[in-house]
């Protein structure tokens, strides 16, 4: 059986939703007396919580597993967990010979018992724990906090799985259908995060606006926001990620506008702006809804910041369809845009579509879209100069002059309500502010991705975008 004296090394790859699962795995192991360590050399149990969403992420996971298997010493075991494990199951050992165990996404809570089975096995063949019909959330979470705390912010998972039919996405195969966590569990954990001193809660799921559908709630996100705000009034910021087109309801908009805690920020991956492409993607194709809903949101919240993502080069995407996407972006002027070149995903309906787009065309379209958005982003940032914004302080660093040379003095790195962690820009402030606090600053300058600010009147230190902190670069 697994020993309570075992040390474990846990490498988490992929998105914030995966990070929450990794934290939950760690909590289960800690509850059973195991101890997490930061180096594989010091652990008996080596776990990689893998990502299986796109080719680059899959390869990163496989490379990490191979490195651990090839470098392990006698007595160490290597376990593949997470999305890649769930998606490919037994065939993963063909890619990574020597794996000891494979455990999927739907029973992460069984990790300690699974380690015990591996310890007790009589033969060296790998073991698998990949149930496909087990509930993913809500019913057997072993009392762990389904959140990942990172400084003063926390990702709080409200649901898992997805029931949407998107042709390019393997998530339903990996995670199963959507399962909402009970309202009381989420509210209790929000209050717990408040007691821990968390300033920002980021609500995440594969489809956050689908929360509560399976529990019988109508306008579930509005219900959830009301409940969290009542239970955790000390949480200064509540941010919504991964909304789905067509499910941002009038009641949800009203709740966002009514609660001071709820940030006027929405992440809503739209994927494209032309009806025909969206139909092939099996996505909501009523473009008029997007125009009408964003207009309604901007009336209710004039300072609304909208992040979205698009796929370029989807099979069959014509010049006309891409031009439609460009018009869509020009018309709606999103604050943040991430763009991805379509990549073939085995087992998804899009893999069978004819008329693939040439890689060179994908690259050219991606560059054109990014150039368009960069102009929009810069204009949006410049419009903020002279305003005062609250920022959540994340850290400190050294400033640079116009030529990229270090200058005396400390700078502060923070995020405004317009900036989600890791994917959006920063506010860079002259001087040192307290980490983990939300403080007001005056915006004094703008770059394409970031803002410059000061606490007192005076010229800001100039920061060259992309040289120190990545400058919130849009993903490729």
Word description of this protein:
The chain has 476 residues and is of the alpha/beta class. The strands form four sheets. It has a seven-stranded mixed β-sheet, sandwiched between helices. It folds into three domains: 7-129, Rossmann fold (3-Layer(aba) Sandwich); 147-382, tm_1862 like domain (pyruvate-formate lyase- activating enzyme); 388-472, OB fold (Dihydrolipoamide Acetyltransferase, E2P), CATH 2.40.50. α8 (220-231) packs parallel to α9 and α12 (319-332) runs parallel beside α13. The chain is built from 13 helices and 20 strands. The chain has helices spanning 16-31, 55-71, 83-88, 92-95, 111-120, 171-175, 183-195, 220-231, 250-258, 275-281, 287-300, 319-332, 359-382, and strands spanning 7-12, 35-36, 45-50, 77-82, 101-103, 127-129, 147-150, 153-157, 159-160, 179-180, 200-204, 237-240, 262-267, 305-312, 336-341, 388-400, 406-415, 427-430, 438-446, 451-454. Residues 457-476 have low confidence and may be disordered. It is globular and about 70 Å long.
